Amino acid sequence: MYQTTIKKAVELVGIGLHKGSPVRLRLEPLEKNSGIIFYRSDVDVSIALTPANVVDTKMATVIGKDNYVISTIEHLLSAVYAYGIDNLRVIVDADEVPVMDGSSASYCMLLDEAGIKELDAPKKIMRIKKEIMVQEGDKYVKLSPSPDLRYGFTIKFAHPVINKQEYVLNFTKENYKNEIARARTFGFLHEVQYLRSKGLALGGSLDNAIVLDDKKVLNPEGLRFTDEFVRHKILDAIGDMSLIGMNFIGNYEAMAGSHDLNHKLTLALLKDAENYEVIELVGEKTAELEKAYA
Ligand SMILES: [Zn+2]
Known about the structure:
The structure is a single chain. By secondary structure, this protein is an alpha+beta fold. It folds into two domains: 2-122, lpxc deacetylase, domain 1 (Ribosomal Protein S5, domain 2); 124-292, lpxc deacetylase, domain 1 (2-Layer Sandwich), CATH 3.30.1700.10. It is 23% helix and 35% strand. It has helices at 74-82, 105-114, 173-180, 189-197, 228-241, 259-271, 287-292; strands at residues 2-6, 10-15, 22-29, 36-40, 45-48, 54-56, 62-65, 68-70, 88-92, 116-122, 124-128, 132-136, 139-144, 149-157, 163-170, 186-188, 210-212, 247-255, 276-280. Strands 11, 12, 13, 14, 15, 18 and 19 form a seven-stranded mixed sheet that branches. β4 (36-40) and β5 (45-48) form a beta hairpin. α1 (74-82) packs across α2 and α5 packs parallel to α6 (259-271). The protein is globular, with a radius of gyration of 18 Å. The chain binds zinc ion (ZN). Residues 74-75, 185, 232, 236 line the site of zinc ion (ZN).
């Protein structure tokens, strides 16, 4: 199995969540062993996708360098990571990635349009060797060794539409596209009103998030899945795990996880080389691993 990039450059324009103004997003192919590199064309700054460049995880995952940031990268990265793309340049002409409909469906369509190209170098993959857990109170995120790639997530909200939701994704690209990619981000009306009062989330609307009041979903079209909330949490987790820098094999499990806990999990994983091994996918003995990313 080989490293990949996209076959041709593609782009789209969408609204940025925070400023509410249009952002142009362009994806370009990159050579082998380049990784994922963000580029802000408005200020001529490149930012490599590594945990060291994560500067904020409160509302979204934000990377930055020299005081220049790119916000809300996780939904795009979720699609890129699920498609197993190793090398890619992501160009935006503002400080955020367009939010589209609050899911990763538009990015999947963009990647389908671009096509996948194999490069002349073996794909590297990380095999989780030890259990790594980050816990804060009753919330935790965890990676554990497994021959399969699985994402399990549980959320509990004292809200009649959400309550307790659990979901397990047995990862394949097709399962991701069918079960996860269309799940939208969500927020509560009082939070949206608060953010607006602070001049944030100016682009936020019922077009790019599920919004709930105390009792119900306000979007006239309703939900795409009854458990759309927990499915979106898996979408976020996949995007956040892309910061590892390569696809992995193991189990991801979370109870009320967040961007912040996911970031701490990637740091804890990479801190000790005993936690993992990096395998080059060549030869028959890696057939099982290759199946997961077929
Ligand atoms: Zn999200």
